Amino acid sequence: MRATSEGGADLVQLLTPEGERVTHPDFDIDLTAAQLRDLYRDMVLVRRFDREGNALQRQGQLGIWVPLLGQEAAQIGAGRALRSGDMAFPSYREHGVAWCRGLDPTELLGIFRGTDHGSWDPLSTGFHLYTIVIGNQALNAAGYAMGQKFDGKVGDDDGEATMVFFGDGATSQGDVHEAMVWGSVYDAPLVLFCQNNQWAISEPLERQTRVPLYQRAAGYGFPGIRVDGNDVLASLAVSKWALDECRHGNGPVLIEAFTYRMDAHTTTDDPTRYRLSDELEAWKLKDPIERLRVHLVREHDADQAFFDEVQAESDELAARFREFCFSMPEPDPGRIFSEVYADPSPAVTAQRDELLGYLDGFAEQPAAAQGGVH
Length: 374
Prior knowledge:
Pfam families: E1_dh. By secondary structure, the protein is of the alpha/beta class. 41% of the residues lie in helices and 8% in strands. It has 2 domains: 33-326, Thiamin diphosphate (ThDP)-binding fold, Pyr/PP domains (Rossmann fold, 3-Layer(aba) Sandwich); 336-363. The chain has helices spanning 33-58, 72-81, 95-100, 109-113, 122-125, 136-150, 174-185, 232-247, 277-284, 288-300, 304-326, 346-360, and strands at residues 87-89, 162-167, 190-196, 199-200, 203-204, 224-228, 253-258. 43% of the residues are buried.
């Protein structure tokens, strides 16, 4: 399998790269023009603040940024399929899912500026904190989903489900396989959403697997589906189906969203060192936002005024995102010790006092005490 392939005969697709609406015998969805416009707006706004995050890192305002460029359809489709009672477990790239769960994009900045581990409440948002350790969130999600079942929150239309997000590289981690084992043997309401963006940093997909990733689900005894991850309609339809299966006690389900990472793995990475420009150019023709834009123009009479309005809104969001970053206060150094243990620890307290005492030694002194002015 090569990164520039079309994903194979089993690929679920409802909107072609040319913007043509097609049907699928098992997965389809009926959306109004207004709903399609909302999905377009979601993707444009998410891409805009993602690009701003990239720029802020380059300008020294963030320690790192993890871009999602090219993966907007997979994330928005899956994110909009979730209900308020569901739980999502992200890795560190799910800015689009965060948007769908109601987080303001500015709440993501502290992680990448190094001032907090996440400022939102996972329970009230239904969105867990970002997970940096590759694949670890899959185990957390499996445990949460098992708890949903043990609490009797599955089995009917009002049931709950859990969705966990990870990349193709994470499928080589033991945590992901263990999550599939635990999820399957306990029939957990767990949707494992793999964004196969073709590259695990610099390692291509063929270094991760000999078979398509979605086929791995068969080894654990639950269904696996490959969806066009650049098609927001297909991503939404398949995610809704998978979550509904889990709500009714028929989980887990593995979704492989076949997409492409259009930018670097993170801002510390240089993808030109390991992939060809021809590959990137081929995937630009499958851009998730452009295909929906074309469809809206051709089939739903979207005019330039609508697109200008969305663009203006995205620019306003980017400006607010940027201004918030520049005005973020520096946290007190003692804060790093405040959330280590629930109860005070003598060892941590001693370490805190030692550090703060050391830093106090650098407090501003009168010029004479510093050797005078030269």
